[in-house]
């Protein structure tokens, strides 16, 4: 596997190169700016994988990928986590915070290798995508009153105390009789995603995404704030693909 590094700090670039080579991979080149990268990518064969620092001396490395059609997979590195959502929208493999942990680097590169070799198709998702109809409203019983809630008014679903609940974009919570498993099958997967066993969220309700411990992600919604919503580790890559 050929890996290219984009890093404007020479000591950091040398250290990252050494860590990559210690893992048994070859570093083909080190680029230090947006300008140099644009010139290099326009004239050279693109590598399989890029390790790119986000903040370079002449701007954010996102500009490289927004200006050129680069097919390489990307692992972004940075000392800050404020760019996480933008990095994920560029379909990066991972997002590593400096100082880069060798084990996290190893896991990130192996994640790319596994994804590259994956040839199976999620047939269940394909079937769901091509279903003609998804649920577009929920009928809620509140005391002696039945309330109809349109799907566009919903921020998330969650389970607690062996029951399921619906949260609206106004921050109101209503109990549901269905299980979260049943609810998930009725929702359009383009708009709703089950981030873990407890939560299903809608993409329009996402306010912020941040790095969480153990290579997981924390999602902040516009209104719901009763509990932390954590994307389970095994769903992180799929989640990133969903929001891209």
Report on the structure:
By secondary structure, the protein is α/β, with parallel strands linked by helices. It has helices at about 10-20, 35-45, 60-65, 85-90, 100-115, 125-130, 180-185, 235-244; strands at about 1-5, 25-30, 50-55, 55, 60, 75-80, 95, 135-140, 145-150, 155-160, 165-170, 175, 190-195, 200, 205-210, 215-220, 230. The chain has a 5-stranded parallel beta sheet with strand order 2-1-3-6-7. Strands 12-11-10-14-13 form a 5-stranded antiparallel beta sheet, with helices on one face. A 3-stranded antiparallel beta sheet has the order 15-16-17, with no helix packed on it. Helix 4 links the parallel strand 6 and strand 7 (about 95). The longest helix is centred in the middle third of the chain and has 16 residues, at about 100-115. It starts with a strand and ends with a helix.
Topology of this structure?
Elements: E1 2-6, H1 10-22, E2 26-31, H2 34-43, E3 49-53, E4 55-56, E5 59-60, H3 62-67, E6 73-78, H4 84-89, E7 94-97, H5 102-117, H6 123-129, E8 137-142, E9 145-150, E10 154-160, E11 163-168, E12 173-176, H7 180-186, E13 192-194, E14 199-202, E15 206-212, E16 216-221, E17 229-231, H8 236-243
Parallel strand pairs: 1-2, 1-3, 3-6, 6-7
Antiparallel strand pairs: 4-5, 8-9, 10-11, 10-14, 11-12, 13-14, 15-16, 16-17
